[in-house]
Amino acid sequence: MSEMIVVRDLVKNYGDFCAVSHISFTVQEGAIFGFLGPNGAGKTTTIKMLTTVLEPTSGTLRVNGHDPVHEQKKVRRSFGIVFQDPSLDDELTAFENMDLHGALYGIPRGERARRAQALLELVGLAERQKDFVKQYSGGMKRRLEVARALLHQPRILFLDEPTIGLDPQTRNHIWGYIQTLSKEHGVTVFFTTHYMEEADRVAGDVAVIDHGKIVAQGTPAVLKQQTNTPTLEDAFIALTGHGIRDEEATSADRMRRMAAVWRGRRR
Ligand SMILES: Nc1ncnc2c1ncn2[C@@H]1O[C@H](COP(=O)(O)OP(=O)(O)OP(=O)(O)O)[C@@H](O)[C@H]1O
Ligand SMILES: [Mg+2]
């Protein structure tokens, strides 16, 4: 088995602020790896460095054996990504979004169409492929983003909160495709989520990052054992504390928390 993602002593500073501080981990081929941490912990920053979007301040990275700083093309061909923020073109149809992505990767037209069809079937969108994305629900958009990330047949899939805001059915579907990709096609999966029960269910290994530092890593079972807690969520809270990351929280997070308070008051 080969190491598909290697991170050694990685650091990212934004000016004076250290967002990622000397983190190290490896992900084996075909593994499903969960990168967990509170808001503002440094998860997206790490993904951006692995996917050539941001240059590290220091440290060593390998993605499919290539260096994201000096071998950007080879790295970019190795992975597909679902970004934390939606990145579809609402004014195009689902098929056109897929086709455009395939064209950007230089896949010939016929092959592009064949793959797009198969992937749209995988995520249950084949019948709606001619609809404009602006007419899609949130869950349909996320499934389309997963399908699009797979169009160039990457060896590694990065998923930054792929199931945020989705109903349990859609979340289960998405994890179902992802587990199939890992098991049957040997695709390596690197994901983040705030839903600890999802990570517990699908991840082989997880790493917990807080304030830019990795505070624990291992299987979910090992983390529960180390913290003497019954669930991964309890282990996560034991490792990262009860405090809200207020300064880092997005307005969307604040709205969700306020809504939860109001729901609590109504009861
Ligand atoms: N371009 C930037 N300039 C300055 N600071 C930044 C920048 N991008 C991110 N940060 C800061 O770096 C820290 C890590 O951010 P990052 O987006 O990696 O967190 P995250 O773990 O993905 O959080 P979330 O779960 O909320 O998505 C935060 O404190 C954030 O405010
Ligand atoms: Mg993030």
| Strand tally | 9
CATH topology: Rossmann fold
Largest pleated sheet = 6 strands, mixed
Gyration radius over CA: 19 Å
Count of helices?
10
Structural class designation: alpha/beta
CATH superfamily: P-loop containing nucleotide triphosphate hydrolases
Bound molecules: adenosine-5'-triphosphate, magnesium ion
List the strand order in the largest sheet.
5-6-7-3-8-9
CATH architecture verdict: 3-Layer(aba) Sandwich
Task: Explain what the structure shows.
This protein is α/β, with parallel strands linked by helices. It has a single domain, classed as Rossmann fold (3-Layer(aba) Sandwich). Helices cover 41% and strands 23% of the residues. It contains 10 helices and 9 strands. The strands form 2 sheets. Strands 5-6-7-3-8-9 form a 6-stranded mixed sheet, sandwiched between helices. It has a 3-stranded antiparallel sheet with strand order 2-1-4, covered by helices on one side. The longest helix has 18 residues. The termini are far apart. The model has no long low-confidence stretch (mean pLDDT 93). The structure holds adenosine-5'-triphosphate and magnesium ion. The site of magnesium ion has 4 residues, from helix 1.
What's the layout of helices and strands?
Layout: E1 3-14, E2 17-28, E3 32-36, H1 43-50, E4 58-63, H2 72-78, E5 79-82, H3 94-104, H4 109-122, H5 138-149, E6 156-160, H6 168-185, E7 188-192, H7 196-202, E8 205-210, E9 213-218, H8 220-227, H9 232-240, H10 251-266
Parallel strand pairs: 3-7, 3-8, 5-6, 6-7
Antiparallel strand pairs: 1-2, 1-4, 8-9
Helix pairs in contact: 3-4, 8-9
Bound molecules: adenosine-5'-triphosphate and magnesium ion.
